[in-house]
């Protein structure tokens, strides 16, 4: 019996060795075929077996809320393109603009989102633009693109209503001309949830109003619950995403309940949209009701498909994009303003000159916001320092290459086998001093004056998968910024922790919040 066990163990060991030799031979052959070289890191990447030290450090960084800073440190230590392995998974990491251009544009068809992301996000989001590849993704994008036309993006009537609700929330904290300490980030996430639900579903969740003291009653709790369940589900999705191909280990009754409640909430509005669409087909346009004259994304989408599950999924995808991206951008921008009051004052002077005061505002439209150069510089600088998605992943669907990173000088092509993982960090790339200068980590909007950028600046991704709602997000952030600067002439930083921490869900926001005091202007 012992001899059989020894023979089996020897056979397995022999198979393992032969298999490793065979795979190494095949890999070396493909390196020569594709004329590639392996990346050479500047330092030893892992000193523990199976890369367990890398995993330990990453988990500690995640718990400590500084994971993007770890990625930046790794680039400084190992180089702008390097390979590493954790357990049995080998990945290539890069912050080289030439490689990102290849992944996202020139070799776009060689890479997919991969089954890991689709599986991790499916319970909450279902089938949609963030979980689709290939032909399905193209069909969805073509269906969604017309909904982001210039007229829809330039209508600030709905936005102004929710800005006024934001102001009401701030008013509850006023003590004379100054507010008490407030966390603007909380208010921004409520504002964008409310505007997103109104534009997408036809009815606002009204989280800003319902959180006011006079409105906190049990009868009004259901819409507040949607925002809480949405946030809870996103937290679980983020954790599942970090477990890569082991995402299925991360699940719970709490997660499933939140997914079900979000689905039920949106399903109600999907049915209303389908009913309106059915009525519209039976009536002349002159018989349309008042609510039909107001743009509702779900109504427009219901003309393209009547599948209630698809409608629900697309709305949840867009709610994630429209709510979290804009709220995070506003949060980072005002955190930077609190840290840099001179730039706040400079922009405020320009805002007053171009858009009037809060009490006597001039018209604010799409073109004027876009042409307000210093406002755009501030938005770009916030997106450079704190990109909304600091880390992303693709999976090769065929044997392919990337143009840069191989060899000791990093100038040779890198071989990417089919099925392998490629990771990139816009956060780390946006802070490269060889690209942005020695002041790369400083908030200096003036750097954008006359500056032309390419693939080194990717705040909304790039290539075919560039965010179709980016102009909507910039418009909303710009509008809200103008209205706040019209009303408040001084911002005071009330942060107690000088170290900026990162709350990584599916977007990146400040784990410290944005705690400030604001002074009401007298003009």
TrEMBL record:
SUPFAM superfamilies: Cytochrome P450. The keyword Metal-binding applies. The chain crosses the membrane at residues 6-22. Keywords: Heme, Iron, Membrane, Metal-binding, Monooxygenase, Oxidoreductase, Transmembrane, Transmembrane helix, Virulence. GO terms for molecular function: heme binding; iron ion binding; oxidoreductase activity, acting on paired donors, with incorporation or reduction of molecular oxygen, reduced flavin or flavoprotein as one donor, and incorporation of one atom of oxygen. Heme binds at residue 467. Its cofactor is heme. InterPro entries: Cyt_P450, Cyt_P450_CS, Cyt_P450_E_CYP52_ascomycetes, Cyt_P450_E_CYP52_fungi, Cyt_P450_E_grp-II, Cyt_P450_sf. Belongs to the cytochrome P450 family. This is Cytochrome P450. It comes from Botrytis elliptica.
């Amino acid at each position: 019996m012992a001899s059989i066990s020894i023979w089996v163990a020897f056979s397995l060991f022999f198979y393992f060795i032969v298999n490793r030799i065979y795979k190494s031979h095949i890999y070396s052959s493909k390196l020569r075929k594709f004329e590639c070289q392996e990346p050479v890191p500047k330092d030893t990447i892992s000193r523990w077996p199976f890369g367990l030290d890398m995993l330990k450090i990453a988990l500690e960084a995640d718990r400590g809320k500084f994971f993007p800073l770890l990625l930046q440190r790794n680039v400084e230590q190992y180089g702008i393109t390097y390979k590493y392995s954790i357990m049995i998974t080998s990945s290539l990491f890069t912050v080289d603009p030439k490689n990102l251009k290849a992944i996202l544009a020139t070799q776009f068809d060689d890479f997919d989102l991969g089954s890991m992301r689709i599986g991790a996000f499916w319970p909450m989001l279902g089938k949609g633009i963030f979980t689709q590849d290939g032909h399905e993704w193209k069909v969805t994008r073509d269906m969604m693109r017309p909904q982001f036309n210039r007229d829809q993006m330039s209508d600030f009537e709905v936005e102004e209503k929710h800005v006024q609700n934001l102001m009401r929330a701030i008013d509850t904290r006023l003590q004379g001309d100054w507010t008490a300490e407030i966390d603007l980030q909380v208010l921004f996430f409520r504002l964008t949830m409310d505007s997103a639900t109104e534009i997408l579903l036809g009815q606002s969740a009204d989280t800003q109003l319902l959180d006011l003291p006079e409105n906190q009653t049990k009868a009004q709790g259901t819409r507040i619950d949607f925002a809480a369940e949405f946030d809870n589900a996103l937290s679980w999705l983020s954790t599942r995403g970090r477990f890569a191909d082991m995402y299925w280990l991360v699940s719970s009754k709490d997660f499933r309940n939140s997914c079900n409640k979000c689905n039920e909430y949106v399903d109600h509005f999907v049915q209303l949209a389908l009913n309106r669409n059915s009525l519209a087909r039976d009536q002349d346009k002159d018989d349309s009701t008042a609510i039909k004259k107001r743009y509702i994304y779900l109504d427009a989408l219901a003309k393209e498909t009547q599948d209630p599950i698809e409608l629900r999924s697309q709305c949840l995808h867009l709610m994630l994009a429209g709510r979290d991206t804009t709220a995070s951008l506003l949060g980072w921008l005002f955190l930077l303003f609190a840290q840099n009051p001179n730039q706040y004052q400079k922009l405020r002077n320009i805002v007053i000159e171009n858009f009037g005061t809060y009490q006597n505002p001039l018209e604010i439209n799409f073109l004027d916001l876009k042409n307000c150069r210093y406002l755009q510089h501030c938005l770009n600088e916030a997106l450079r320092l704190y990109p909304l998605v600091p880390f992303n992943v693709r999976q090769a669907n065929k044997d392919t290459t990337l143009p840069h990173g191989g060899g000791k000088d990093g100038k040779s092509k890198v071989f990417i086998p089919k099925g392998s993982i490629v990771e990139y960090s816009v956060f780390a790339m946006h802070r490269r001093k060889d690209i942005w200068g020695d002041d790369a980590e400083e908030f200096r909007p003036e750097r954008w004056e006359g500056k032309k950028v390419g693939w080194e600046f990717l705040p909304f991704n790039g290539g075919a998968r560039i965010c179709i709602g980016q102009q909507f997000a910039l418009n909303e952030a710009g509008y809200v910024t103008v209205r706040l600067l019209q009303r408040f002439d001084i911002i005071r930083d009330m942060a107690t922790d000088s170290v900026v921490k990162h709350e990584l869900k599916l977007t990146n926001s400040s784990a410290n919040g944005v705690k400030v005091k604001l002074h009401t202007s007298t003009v």
